[in-house]
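Possible race condition, two jobs.
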Amino acid sequence: MDFQPDDVQQAIQAAARAVARERIAPGARERDRTGHFPAEEIRELGRLGLLGTTIPEALGGTGAGTVAYALAMMELAAADCSVAVTASVTNMVNETIARWGTEEQKARCCPRLSSGEWLAGAFGLSEPHAGSDPAAMRTRAERRGDRWVLNGEKQWITSGDVAGVIVVWARTDDAGGAGKGISAFLVERGTPGLSAGRHEAKMGQRSSSTVPLVLEDCAVPGGAMLGRPGDGMRIALAALDGGRIGIGAQAVGVMDAALEASVRYARERQAFGRPIAQHQAIAFQLADVAVARDAARLLVLRAAMLKEAGRPFSREAAMAKLFASEAAQRAVATGVQVHGGYGYTEEFVVERLYRDARVQTIYEGTSEIQRLVISRDLLRDP
């Protein structure tokens, strides 16, 4: 087993690390304070090919693969989770279109998403009454002549107000059981009948855009359906499997940042006549974070490797997301504790990391849903 990234993967990681440290990290605190969306930073990621990491070069991507994507997300999240989640969702939408779209859909959307010409992509699955249970969605799409007309509401949509294209799920047929009769549609920004609500006042990741969407007689061309009628849940579940690798990688990046800040502070802060890093109570906490961080990294990269190889990876992606996101909660809590009272102030990065990390156990499938995915796979009949 080779744990060393190849030349392409190292190049993508190095590019992400450079832009994260030089362009993204310096403004992260101010963007968090003001809620300013990182538009220029996202466009820079597009110029570097980090919005289409798994997309073939023929469609404007870099074709570097899922491992390179995961490594890049770790670097971006260590600098600013708001930028990382925007990039992660855009990559997920881009890949979903590249996998399920027609040649016309792919040619129109993928190059614009990959380059940053379209500032982001958005994933319109959750609804006010349908989060972990997407089969309960109420949004509907009706065929009227040569168009589909969508009506409904979506909730918690990352980049919903700035995305160039949104993949929107809607019910097209009431026949069949749970999850049946749901289809996916490409809805471009500016389509009449599509509107975004106010930005959510969030605990963390404040400079990423999270909005509700309203679709009111929103008419899209007949060719806007992604995949076939009724393929919606299949498309959504496949996308979420890959998306969980991105969120797991994001959690690893947070742990990297929390550990780096905590080690630095523990070396500098004096108590009882010596640096607090020399006190076992502190040193052992940092050791535990380092172990969890490395374990999470390996779980994420295992899932990424399986996906890249075209092998089944749903359980491994769920494991990676579950472990990494929950380990990140402990890592940031340790970071605040090591900093003492200073860790509770905005002057130190661990305060922002603490808030940013909290949602990682919720979006792209809660920890409870990850345990459901894992247990179903473990307990299914051989």
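Job #2 (started ~2 s after job #1):
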Amino acid sequence: MLSQEQETIRADLKAAIAGNEQELSKFKAMDTANVQLLRTLLEQIHALDIGQVQKRAMAGSCLRLLETAVMATRLNIELTETDAHFISCLEKKHPVLDNRELKICLLIKLDYDNQEIARTASIAARGMESARYKLHQKLGLGKNDSIKNYLTNLVVS
């Protein structure tokens, strides 16, 4: 049986979780709305009566933003355009990686430590060790090769 104090703490935690879930739902709805707005903007750009060079440049910018927004939603993480480009290059070079592995690779590249990555990916510290081992294999790295160095140099090469 829980004490009154424990019951109060439990109720407060449940309320905080409910509030966080509600806020997360709002953010997901905003992401969906942003993707739709970017798609509408892209259609409007294509309908503009301007030069093809200008139209291509505007559409390219819009497509990069759209790709970033879609990828951020898919990986459930906030991405910059640079991060989205990295993920895109990584997916092209290693199509066997799943969304969780892509997210872990990005976090490794961004210099997060194992504990931060495990927390962000919702896995245990031991699970993170296992994930890094599997990534080593999927990326085709040797025993002594650094995942961080490989990922940092991926877009450059």
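The helical segments are 4-47, 52-75, 81-93, 99-109, 114-120, 125-138, 147-154.
Logs attached separately.
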